[in-house]
Amino acid sequence: MVYDRAVARDSERPIPLSGAPFDTSAGRPAPARRSPLGDRLVRFVEEVVGDDITGSIEKIRTNTNEVGHDPFGFDPVAGRYALAATALLHRRYFRSKVFGVDQVPRGRVLIVANHSGQLPIDGAMIGASLMLDRDPPRFPRSMVEKWTAELPFVSSLFPRLGQVVGTPDNARRLLRNDEALVVFPEGSRGISKPFDQRYRLVEFGLGFMRLALETRTPIVPVAVVGAEEQYPSIADVQPLAKALKMPSFPVIPQLLFGFVAPLPTRYHLYFGAPLAFDGDPDDDDAIIQEKVAHVRERIEDLVARGLRERESIFG
């Protein structure tokens, strides 16, 4: 399967760091204001990690609407501060090693990865690698749960960081605007695996493949090695999870001893070559499943490579 790079193109407009005000009449949050303290912190992080965080944000290209706004509410000021915080985790805490990120093509793309670690830190590290390790950077979009739109603070924070409520229509719009969309087909089942099931991928959903076929979007498989050990879960208390309306309630020994931060495991991120698929997005599940299985097998191969090549959980 070969990806035709001729069909891809960069989005048209770079995002200025100053940013125009959002259309608050449409229900979008007002943009964050730059602060002297925040700017000093960003400069400090740039010195510590050796990355041009401000430059990475300014290189982002996106499709804006007729009045110059990002249609999903992304605020480059808030994004700059968030990237600074993520860069510290990426470079210093998890000391991420990144392989093959330059294979992520221009234009629309689905970044499809395994999911683990109890908290979605793996998504943040994939985003950091797309922004800091690829030249030019690719701005990662991801789908968030619909209920997050009703949470105080979170409901305004996520749009400012460029994350989008997970609906099929939003996903189509992003890809038709030539965005990079990060997808975890294992969903909550992947992120909440117990430790004895680490690096065993659970069943993938089919929706991402139907989306790729409908929008003619290439898929880049990604393996994340290191996240499984950051919050090792020895049990899942399902009755309590159901009572709290959570997908799982993991028992994590480090939390019992008061260590709330994730363990400083070393992340290894492997980006594979783009895959392209042809077919009808409305095909029977069995036909779609064959294509999904190919993506899953490719991710499993990359995971196996990562496990072979790493020296230890922390190295």
Notes on the structure:
The protein is an alpha/beta fold and 315 residues long. It has a domain at 95-309: Glycerol-3-phosphate (1)-acyltransferase (3-Layer(aba) Sandwich), CATH 3.40.1130.10. The chain contains eleven helices and eleven strands. The chain has helices spanning 36-49, 53-59, 76-93, 121-132, 154-160, 168-176, 187-191, 207-215, 238-243, 253-256, 285-309; strands at residues 13-14, 61-62, 97-99, 109-113, 140-144, 164-165, 180-183, 219-225, 235-236, 250-251, 268-271. The strands form three sheets. A seven-stranded mixed beta sheet has the order 3-11-8-4-7-5-6, with helices on both faces. A two-stranded antiparallel ribbon has the order 1-2. Helix 5 links the parallel strand 5 (140-144) and strand 6 (164-165). The longest helix is centred in the last third of the chain and has 25 residues, at 285-309. The protein starts with 12 loop residues before the first strand and ends in a 6-residue tail after the last helix.
Task: Please outline the helices and strands.
Blueprint: E1 13-14, H1 36-49, H2 53-59, E2 61-62, H3 76-93, E3 97-99, E4 109-113, H4 121-132, E5 140-144, H5 154-160, E6 164-165, H6 168-176, E7 180-183, H7 187-191, H8 207-215, E8 219-225, E9 235-236, H9 238-243, E10 250-251, H10 253-256, E11 268-271, H11 285-309
Parallel strand pairs: 3-11, 4-7, 4-8, 5-6, 5-7
Antiparallel strand pairs: 1-2, 8-11, 9-10
Helix pairs in contact: 1-3, 2-3, 3-4
